[in-house]
## 1
Amino acid sequence: MKIKKELFKIIFFIIFINIETNSFALTKNKIIANIDNQIVSSYELKNQVKTILFLADQDINQENINLIKEKALQRLITYKLKKNQIIKFNIQTDNSLRINNHLKNLSSRYKTDINGIKRIFENNSIDFDIYLDEIKTEFNWQKLIFNKFKNKIILDEEEIDIELNNIIENQSNLQEYKLAEIELSLKNNSEDKNTILEVNNEINKIGFEKAAIKYSMSTSSSNGGDIGWINSKSLSKKILSILNKMKVGDISQPIFQTDRAIILKLLDEKKVNIDNKDLNELRQKIVKDKTNQLLNLYSNNYLSKIKNNTLIEIK
């Protein structure tokens, strides 16, 4: 009889602990936003904040959390909006190679391999699966934008030939710039000035790369804003005139474009000499750069459109 009583006590204790644990989980993991049929939970927001601060090599303290919380929420909303569209259009692409390369690049920053970076996430109590799904979603979004707008990307072959000939004729002026960017979404109100001031302060405090991870809305943010080598002939006159006044290591003032601002850092530059065997490669690069510029434009416009047409409830 005594054994039965003791057994009953143990069973009751286990049930009580489970109820308490579940209650704790329910109170701690709340829905904080609805985006159509997608939700953002407090767990996801906490994980996003920790991911951004970790990748930016920032301490996870209350001051940094307060600074980044709103940015983290906006990134999650963008992620959910993109995910909705991917489901809607049934985008199923094998991005395993691109994902693997992304994780290898990330791992190399921490002098480890992909399994090592997973362990680092785990040791910092960051949900690696959520991070991985965000990367997959971004690659699928790029595929969606390409499928949706590829027929609208019409490049003038004659214009490309003229640009190529100009490059050949003016080789002495041909430059390539290795750039990094921070892309900020603007609200077109008084808050924009404070946002830009805050980002500039963080650039001075923690460096451009970490500030890009922390603040940039561009897909390049996961690479510290690095967008690689860009041919001078592929740049707009406005950006080219700014870069011509910069030295390697310099950071530009914000460049305003409708509902966003871009801050550039000149990582490196070089003169390019062209011979006949490079012409086809150069032509392909011009086509690729122009195509990517148009796709980025369509991507930003389409994202703004669906955001404006989606019921987003912040709780």
## 2
Amino acid sequence: MTTLSPLRTAAGAAGIAPVINPRVLSLDDSQCSQAVLTLAAQLAATAVQRDQQGGSAQAEKQLFRQSGLLHLSIPRKFGGQGSRWPEIYRITRYLAAVDSSLAHLFAFHHLQLATIQLFGSEQQQKHWLTHTIERDWFWGNATNGRDTGLQLVREEDHYLLLGSKSFCSGALGADALVVSAPVEFGSQERVFLALPASRDGLLIDDDWDGFGQRQTDSGTVHFEGVYVDPGDLLEQGLGTPRATLRTCVSQMVLVQIYLGNAAGALSAAVDYIHERARSWPGSTAEKPTNDALIQLRLGQLWSRFDAASALAERAAERLQQLLDRPQPTPAERGELATWIAEAKLLSGRVALDITSEIFETMGARATSSRFGFDRFWRNVRVHTLHDPLDHKQKDIGRWLLTGEYPPPSNYS
């Protein structure tokens, strides 16, 4: 079942009530569960208001720094907590049920740290990861694979970055960035590099204006002759099956955002029905919780959510297994990509349905802007357009008919 180990004991010990209905979504009883509960409660207090206002949530990003959760994916040998990705994904899912934008930033921060671990030398990993801990850095990115407006130009003993990247989640207000650029002009191959966000010539616009995920700081980054030392390039293992696991890590982040919003919507609906809903005149039930039609609809939505969550858990565990191996095989990587496509397809479709259909169970009063229940659908609708779900469905069908796995790319 999706409800993992209930958090009532941990929450009671911390004096914090879970902000998500435990019947819908809970966390493992891990060492960081109290920190997650505390952070979720802090985010929930202003989540609706901030979603409506948009802008950059720099104060809330500071709460992440104070929580210690930015160090989760950093190996213990560099001073981090060495948490496994299935746990990080569960935390992302829980936080996304409360505040989808900040969960997005949290997960993308860890995606950049994974990039350093996948592509960086031991010396580079030590440099960037220890700096992250010592200075409580929050990482952003400028890695949009479809944006070809950035060039990495070779000079005598260094490089220059010229151009721009759009849709750079977490870039605004970040302490450091992972950037991708073509290895040469017109090339489809790209190289990753790590840079402090304060480097001269690096400018970040606050121009993200999507109707969902409003506080993901996903502006455009401009590079006006930004200096790049050869040591900034992350070039270990390029072209290997293990290197392509970065896309798998990224795609699984999206799955958690979908499921988190779906869980937030279900939790909101259950609580609203208990506390505010009224029985429809045509219903024979004395109270909405006993209304057979409401039970029927929520039962269907929950079952689909639970199935999507199970696929996500399966894929996350397999991803971790391959990350733990020095060199997974192309077939192992291909099977994982198929599992992730299944999880992403089902979670995306289910989340779109749940975040829309909850209103059928709550009624017209639930559309009041003061509740902000519409934010769950808006967030999912924007996020599911990152790369088309139809292509995931096609990849699954092709594998079923031909045995061909999704080819490694920026999106599979």
## 3
Amino acid sequence: MTEIQLNMYHALALGAAMYGLGLILTKKFSVLSRFCIPAPLVGGLCFAILNTILYATGTAVITFDDTLQTVFMIMFFTTVGFTVSIPMLLKSGKAVLLLLALSIVIIILQNAVGSGVMALLGKDPLFGLGCGSISMIGGPGTAAAIGPDLDAAGAVGGTTVAVAAATFGLIFGSLLGGPIARRLIVKNHLREELPEDHGHEEDADDTHYTTHSGSFVRGFLLLMFCVGVGNYVSAWLTALCGFNFPAYIGAMLVAVIMRNVIDLLAHSARSSAGFTIAEFPSNEISTMGSMFLAIFLSMALSGLKLWQLVDLALPMLVCLAAEVLLMGLFSVFVVFPLMGRDYDAAMITAGFIGFGMGATSNAMANMQAVSRRYGPSPSAYFVIPMVGGLFNDFFNAAIIAFSIGLLS
């Protein structure tokens, strides 16, 4: 069989092309955008399917250098660290802390269910982690980032399993969130349905802001500094704890510290007459993060070896069915009661299912669908992005690293 090898520059061009293809397909087929399926996921899977067909027919197999994929992955997660504002967390109140605690519980349960089901079916429990919090609450980004750690630990094909499971989670996180929230609202008589002609403005699709090159330069320099220092922090944490942390966790932690130090200095400067300091370039960092995520995911998904799923197809289906059942029961019987059993709690439940099985974008889409029928919930729109978009990655990464070390 002919092997076509792409170097890291070819791989970068491939990732960009597949992202462009994904954008075209998500715009052309409304079902993809309706379920919030990311464009990099669509484009990358198209190439992975093509590569699988070539492999299955004995024509060729395409491999590529993933060096730049790892670089973009670390830089993306570093931008996530920059979003964590400690004062914002302290001001957010009991609801955020309670939901964060519940998300940590579901992380542990997802891994326990996944690894337990795989072990019962005679498969490596590490594959169960790939169907657990790596792909469920972690989503495609975490699946593509930590999947190679499963491969390195002995679960060959772990990346493919994790990303396939994350795709499953994206779809079912969108399918379940709205209906379950509606059931809770109707059953508990929480709110009357709005008239059909009642209009709700959708959230703005694009956020426009003005900037200049200096802000992007500052943001990029901050990013590079955190990536470099974070490499030492990750190595130190690994040596201290005795198990491998994901490569990006150190950079995320350094980014959190840098963000909050800069905010503190800026606040102090505003209080001092005649002294100013540049504001943190949050919009620029966010834009760079979107760029890094798009190219990283496109490259990671393009490199999937889908033929490795053949022997794991049935165990994966059983495992993912168990994860869906877990999320449904946990959301209805734990999240909804503990968050207050009111309309806000029902909306938070819809959002929790969204990011607990897919991504924060799924969570926001779920809540938006419910709000169109029953009205808005400002509390839910504040709590869900705070937990699902900011703090989950830290706890998930630590628990996953510990679990891999325990099972490998």
